[in-house]
Design brief:
The protein has eight helices and 14 strands. α5 packs parallel to α8. It is 26% helix and 26% strand. It is an alpha/beta fold and 310 residues long. It has two domains: 160 residues, Rossmann fold, CATH 3.40.50.620; 123 residues, TPP-binding domain (Rossmann fold). It is elongated. The mean pLDDT is 90.
Length: 310
């Protein structure tokens, strides 16, 4: 029987993909989960079978699961392989696709199926357009972006197998270091405040942080703020090559709205911007906006929110 295989080292993303896999599965297909969580967890969100990997050793890497995944693809005759579009997940997907001579579609936003044809939507042109691809050749590897699909509780009976991860003798892990910088999870946040080059100095970001605190959100930035100015960690910049703001509200402060940034906010439910340039491209990508000096507007906005906050 040809099955659908789902993998991610990110538990939330894996559970999101399981619901979509159940939608895609035909009557004679099963949904197979592979990861480090419990089989009960996978069964809750729709898996018919699971492969539970051993805990990674001190020298282990997430990428070491590739031989296991290749074996599972063969065992289960998997025709569709959904892999979470994390940094490691994208590398793993490429390796699986190369090993199995499979079609590989990256950064998927939607997947549908009609008979033997799978239709996939993905971002192109820096996120400014969606491309629809129809695939009729299998196996098919698809990397899925976080928060594209809602988790669905589809409690099933499940069969489970344990699987040991082999050590890659070609690569030796010399040392691990914990980052001393605490990075917020931008993609999991419902409210995100993004700072751009409209801020004149690093100390002024405290105003944006206050706004984020007042609305119960997190502070993020555009790529230049992280990579050029080094005012904030690289792990919190929003854009095509960074994080995506996919929550209920995204507020852009002094961000001109270049195409690479806009690609990171297109999935937010409501977008708001404050910028002094009335010709800035950000106005083509926002629902609401204020044209003006953010240094004058922000204090008034924060005071008004505080006054009316319940």
């Amino acid at each position: 029987m040809s099955n659908i295989l789902v993998f991610s080292e990110n538990r939330e993303l894996l559970c999101e993909m399981l619901g979509k896999a159940c939608e895609l599965a035909s009557d004679n297909q099963g949904v197979v989960a592979s990861g480090w969580d419990s089989d009960e967890e996978y069964a809750k969100f729709g898996a018919d079978k699971s492969y539970i990997f051993d805990k990674l050793s001190e020298s282990g890497r997430v990428e070491d699961v590739v031989p296991c995944l290749k074996e599972i693809v063969s065992r289960e005759d998997a025709s569709i392989i959904l892999i979470g579009a994390t940094k490691r997940g994208k590398e793993i997907a490429a390796r699986i696709a190369a090993a199995k001579d499979a079609v590989c579609i990256t950064d998927c936003k939607e997947i549908g199926r009609e008979g033997s044809t799978v239709e996939v939507q993905r971002m192109v042109y820096g996120g400014m357009a969606l491309k629809v691809e129809k695939i009729e050749r299998f196996p098919l590897v698809v990397t899925v972006l976080p928060r594209m699909f809602a988790k669905k509780e589809l409690q099933k009976d499940i069969r489970s197998e344990a699987m040991s991860i082999p050590t890659d003798s070609k690569i030796n892990l010399i040392e691990r270091k914990t980052s001393c910088i605490q990075v917020v999870d931008v993609e999991a946040a419902d409210r995100v405040v993004v700072v751009g080059r409209g801020f004149e100095k690093k100390e002024d970001l405290s105003m944006a942080q206050e706004l984020a605190d007042v609305i119960g959100g997190v502070l993020a930035c555009t790529r230049p703020i992280a990579e050029d100015y080094r005012w904030m960690p690289e792990g919190v910049y929003v854009g095509l090559t960074g994080k995506s703001s996919k929550g209920k509200l995204n507020i852009s402060l002094g961000a001109s709205g270049q195409i690479h940034y806009v690609a990171g906010i297109v999935d937010a439910n409501v977008t708001v911007a404050i910028d002094a340039n009335e010709q800035a491209p950000i106005w083509n990508a926002t629902d609401y906006g204020i044209v003006g000096d953010l240094y004058s507007i922000l204090p008034e906005l924060i005071a008004e929110i505080k006054k009316n906050k319940i």
